[in-house]
Amino acid sequence: MERNCTASCEEIVRNKQVILREHVRGFPREADMEVRDGSVKLKVEDGSSGAMWVKNLYLSCEPKTRHLMKTIRPGSPITGFGVARVVDSANPKFKKGDLVWGITGWEEYSLIASSETFFKIEHTDVPLSYYNGILGMPGLSAYVGFFELCSPKKGESVYISTAAGGVGQLVGQFAKLLGCYVVGSAGSQEKVELLKNKFGFDEAFNYKEEADLDAALKRYFPEGIDIYFENVGGKMLDAVLLNMKNRGRIAACGMTSQYNLEQPEGIHNLMNLILKQVRMEGFLVSSYYHLYPKFLETVLPHIKQGKITYVEDIVEGLENAPAALVGLFSSHNVGKRVIVVSRE
């Protein structure tokens, strides 16, 4: 196979990286990470079939990153979803210059050994950073969890926790386009206003200001909840279980309240799954990558027609990535947080 590289690929270049210093206990701290300058030769070694070097452009900063940190050896770069440009390739699916998104390193350049988690970006008439959010893993997660798992119907009542994040803001808008009644919760009044005034939610509330989550949900759902899109777990899930309708559906996408705990919280109201015949199903978006083309066909027209609004929280510079990640767990972000490595 002809290699997709020129002589310039062999030059040694600086490679700034965000390194995990030690395994994280509890909430991540900036001290758990270190920004280092290294160097790399941008050439796939002979015999590295299927490998490719990419230049990272935009990195996704999300709660899932904290979960992935548990699998990383100290001294290695943090990993997560990102948008990149191929600079050298021994992979027949990708050539030099291709734009791609998938799991990469928190660094300027990454060597990708396996391309199973990578997609070529075909539509460049929308911002590339969108492939870290609405057109990437968060968008596909929203689509799969809502449409494939919950089988929504017009007029149903939908509740979304962490509703102002990259996934929640899209689930709510999908539900509104279908004609559902939609309520979301978030961690600040600014986000509550965003949900109602920008994303079109019917109602929204700040969960931090609610002493009794069960009472809050009964206030917004006096007849109960048909669909709950689960992003939080813990006390929120316990309260939701008390307020589900008969044959309600719960899509478990994430449980952010549990990621930083040494001992996970227990759930006390699971009997309601039986008594109300509620179906609760967890999912990994990687099991639904085959639906990505169908997802794009559905979402791209809505974006271009202005039927879906999308908000990003942009952080400039890889050196600011540790603070960006830590800030997620203090509700500092408004919208989908994206780290800009290079705008080329």
UniProtKB/TrEMBL annotation:
InterPro entries in the record: ADH-like_C, ADH_N_2, ER, GroES-like_sf, MDR_fam, NAD(P)-bd_dom_sf
Residue spans crossing the bilayer: none
One Pfam family matching this protein: ADH_zinc_N
GO molecular function: oxidoreductase activity
Enoyl reductase (ER) domain segment(s): 50-339
Highest taxon above the source species: Eukaryota
Keyword vocabulary terms for this entry: Oxidoreductase
Name by which UniProt lists this protein: Enoyl reductase (ER) domain-containing protein
Organism: Eucalyptus globulus (Tasmanian blue gum)
